[in-house]
Design brief:
globular, binds adenosine-5'-triphosphate, 2 domains, 25% strand, alpha/beta, three-stranded antiparallel beta sheet, disordered C terminus, six-stranded mixed beta sheet, 41% helix, Rossmann fold
Length: 245
């Protein structure tokens, strides 16, 4: 991607209300080409709702959302309903979802390390295996922006580290931006350029270091945040080398 500072997506004062409840309130958010931006926040804070607004799956109640014309987005949802009575191999699932060239399918499966799963029934995959298949599906769109809703859910601790490393590699190799929701605070802090802490409204935003020191962040996450800081300090130098600021 030639211009790494190009704005891909911008939300201005975006709100979303449902049944009289304000789920997202006055959010400003800008995603530029090639950056990794992570949304954190407690359960029910509106993170998934905000992703759906950004994707255009929900219409905002107020505010405006601008997407770069022709922007290609790959979305990995938090949940996927698969009919257990309709056996479907991983390869067929990806083929149906991707409408892509067999060579592109093979490359993407290699990139995400799921070749050994090709013939397995999608219904029988473990949580971590399924997450990689869903990531591959999102990549088949050749996205400028990958949107991932809790990509590491159901993945064990070792697998989580690998998954975040894979995301960093994908960004490096493909130059795509990544917007993701995560609860794995300490892992995310090392694997992201910018953090947005959401509790319906944006509580704080900035580099991982600045957010992890922010009073609102510490209030929201309490002891978990302190724990996180201990982990994060190990990774700070490493992260700084790759930071986009
Ligand atoms: N279709 C809907 N109708 C009514 N309320 C909804 C709907 N979808 C979500 N909500 C509510 O909106 C709030 C925010 O939900 P959302 O899924 O965006 O939160 P989240 O931050 O992603 O949570 P989690 O971390 O638990 O996944 C929750 O209280 C949820 O119950």
């Amino acid at each position: 991607m030639a211009d790494n500072r190009r704005t891909l997506l911008e939300l201005r004062q975006v709100s979303y209300a449902r049944q009289g409840r304000m789920l997202v309130e006055g959010v400003d958010l800008r995603i530029t080409a090639g950056e990794i931006l992570t949304l954190i926040g407690p359960n029910g804070a509106g993170k998934t709702t905000l992703l759906k607004l950004a994707l255009g799956l929900l219409p905002p109640t107020a505010g405006r959302i601008d997407r770069l014309p022709g922007l290609s987005i790959g979305y990995m949802p938090q949940r996927l309903h698969i009919d257990p009575s309709f056996p479907l191999s991983v390869k067929r699932f990806l083929h149906l979802a991707g409408h892509c060239h067999p060579r592109q399918l093979a490359t993407t499966m290699a990139e995400t390390g799921i070749e050994p799963l090709a013939g397995r029934a999608i219904q029988n995959l473990s949580g971590g295996e399924l997450q990689r298949v869903l990531l591959a599906r999102a990549l088949l769109r050749n996205p400028d922006l990958l949107v991932l809703d809790e990509p590491a859910q159901g993945v064990d601790v070792h697998g989580q580290t690998e998954l975040y490393q894979l995301l960093a590699d994908l960004r490096q190799r493909r130059g795509c931006a990544i917007l993701m929701v995560s609860h794995d605070l300490h892992l995310v802090m090392a694997a992201t350029d910018r953090v947005v802490c959401l509790n319906h409204h944006v509580c704080c935003t900035g580099s991982p270091e600045s957010v992890s020191r922010n009073a609102d962040f510490l209030t929201l996450f309490g002891p978990a945040a302190q724990h996180n800081l201990a982990f994060f300090s190990h990774d700070t130098d490493h992260h700084e080398e790759h930071s986009h600021g």
